[in-house]
Design brief:
The longest helix has 30 residues, at 627-656. A hairpin with an 8-residue loop joins strand 13 and strand 14 (420-423). A seven-stranded mixed sheet has the order 1-2-7-8-9-11-10, with helices on both faces. Strands 12-13-14 form a three-stranded antiparallel sheet. The protein has four domains: 3-27 and 227-362, Phosphorylase Kinase, domain 1, CATH 3.30.200; 29-222, no CATH class; 434-521, no CATH class; 536-664 and 716-822, no CATH class. Helix 1 packs across helix 2, helix 3 (82-103) packs antiparallel against helix 7 (177-195) and helix 21 runs antiparallel to helix 27 (716-743). It is α+β, with helices and mostly antiparallel strands and 826 residues long. The protein contains 31 helices and 14 strands.
Amino acid sequence: MADRDATQDAPASDDPLRGVTVIDAPETRVHRVTDIIAASITTLGIVLVLLLGAYGTATTEGLTEDVQGFARVLQRLLVAPVNLFSGIVTIVVPLAVIVDLGFRREPRRILEVIGAGVLAFIVTVIAAITTLEFGADELVRSLSVRTSEGEMVVQLPAYLAAVAAMLTAAGLRTTRRVLSISWPFVWIAAAVGVISGIVTLPAAITVVLIGRASGLVLRWAVGSTADRAYGAQLADGIRRAGFEPRRIVRADHHDAYEPEGHDDVAAAIGRTRSGRIYSVTTVEGHQLIVLALDGDQHAAGFISKWWQTIRFRGLDPRAEVSLRHAAESTALVSHAARSAGVRTARVLGMSQARDTMLVVYQRPVAMRALSEMTADEVDDEMLDSIWSQFGQAHAAGVAHRQVSADTILVGDGEATGTPLVWITSWDMGEVATSTLARRLDNVQVLAATAAIVGSDRAVDAAFRALGEDIVEQVAPLLQSIVLPRSTQKALKAHGDRLKDTRAAIVARVPDAEIEQQNIARFGWRTIILFGAAVLIGTVILTTFNTQEVLGALSSANPAWLVGAFAWSLLTYAGAALAMLAFSPVRLPWGRVLFTQVAAGYIAVAVPAGVGPAALNLRLLTRRRVAGPLAVATVALVQVSAVVVTVIGLLALTLFTGSEGTLAALPSTAVLIGIGVAAVVITAFMLVPKVRRWTLAKIMPTVRQTWPRLVQILGQPWRLALGLAGNLVQTVAFVGTFYCTLEAFGQDLAIIDVTILFFLSNAVGAVVPTPGGLGAVEASLIAGLTGAGVPLPVATPVVLIYRFITYWIRIPMGYVAMQWLNRKGEM
């Protein structure tokens, strides 16, 4: 329900609205993004303090002893006892906060403050119990104090956490004097606890941070009082921008205004990320649009821009240290676009009211968003006009960076007879921008128009506006990752229209390279997978005795390590040989070999096996091999490697006569396990959805490789050469692992070494961490310890093996990649 604030025609002189009618829906409580961000940072601070306390025991204990030594002198000078001060902090400070809220008539906030204190108290108690039950000895010792009986007891004063949580839930310390005074007392109480020996330094800091995090989480969950400009403050802000309002109507909430046709107002400056839009009528009868940017939403916008800037290559950062700076940047880009001849709403003024920045725009003629139009309503003349507007912006070095069908508006050109296209929402825009940023604009325009009028018409319009050369440069960037979510959703509603758009470009320019260019430095998946790998690596590194591992490393045989490195180099030759055998065109041996070496460089960011496949594909497409044929060739190389692995394992089992790991396989437990696995697999395959999913994963590879495999079968020598290359690669990896084991005096049967290698290789392929990082190490260590190798020896064996086969390949791959780039191969 709209909140209608209206004055009489003849208001009193002290009325803040002074004859202004405001139709709005004020939000009295907001969920601040900054609260959850601050809670996350505070939680990270807790982790860092605990790590410092656990692993920097000497430092923290030294500081605590120094402070407590000074305390013996200080306590003789203090008149009031320490317990009295602690009581004041525990009782007086919370009471002062509650009384202050009572005078301000905020009963709900009082309940929230009490709830935050209870929450922090419970969290602290749980943290103490968890530390005692599951904490490492170093962590427990860092949080423990010695009692008079000489026992070490974990001390986490929950009352201190409760007070910190109450102060946090009460609001921002800069807004209330009682809070700004109380916070220093909390830290003084923590210091007094350390001085008097009640608590250790890490424990004191931890409990305050626990309280702070608990209060922030609660404040974010229930919301906090908004400091936004509404009503009288909004009207005063518009006056300070130079305009006298008579009527102010909220235009971006359909339930907040009367049905007077304000839809075009919201459209006129687009669907902004974090702003409120108002239709304003001045006393002179002028129609204006006011964009209100709220400080509590600024953090979300800043993070969005920061994330896009660091995620995509070639985008220049635009620092926005404050809400005012964000508003000024948006106004600057809008003004630059308009000066370049782009139709966009003119910025007429700016001002600040409370925690809100107001930007006043002119109100254009009535118009519709492109997203609200059908294909029949959008003719070729309109498409050309859309491209013309962005062409003018790009010619002046201005990029939009967030183009969608919602930011492209169309009005009636009654005077000229042509449609008037307007471009809005420049809050992500840039001036003096890079070539890549402008090309991304072109990609977004092409995708947005394709979602409306279809791929063929959209591509035709792009060729008319940009020309063949630029469209060919834009084609590799045509991928969903760079498109706004609204465009992605619209494209998916019409099937795989993005793929159809690429096909339409190839139909116009058959030689165009449409292979997707990697423009993302990383994504959420990479971050999560890398974090998982670091976690696994940390667990591995913290479970062995450092002295024993160093002793094993010092006793390693250098000759065997040199042999392991030599075997690892042979893997490149095997991979290159397989690629040469299956390639449909003649490839230079040196280029192919360096491509396999370069794959080690990108293995730092992609799962195991993906790097060689991607670079081999690039090597073929650079020689104008058709995309489907290149993909089929690379897939055939990978499939042949799997075939060689299986055949090699069977042959090794039959002809080596080893009494190693396989001798124990036909045990009752193993047979039961195999039987259960077979039953489970069979049962799952009887489920239609599982069967369809499995076939969907397998059949595309079969369809891709089968035609190429038929061709290779007609050339037996090439098939034999390709299988031999994969065999050489597998044998070389096994040889590397075997030599590493021998370097540490571990003489395992060759069949055992081979099985462990195959198992770790399979795990690395299933777990999509970069290069199988973490998963391969864990599987190899588990396998070696299961085979009887002591953990202090198995750990350095695996670390050295991975250093030779993964880490040392990264700098080697970088050198090879630079050489290939200079030769124009990549």
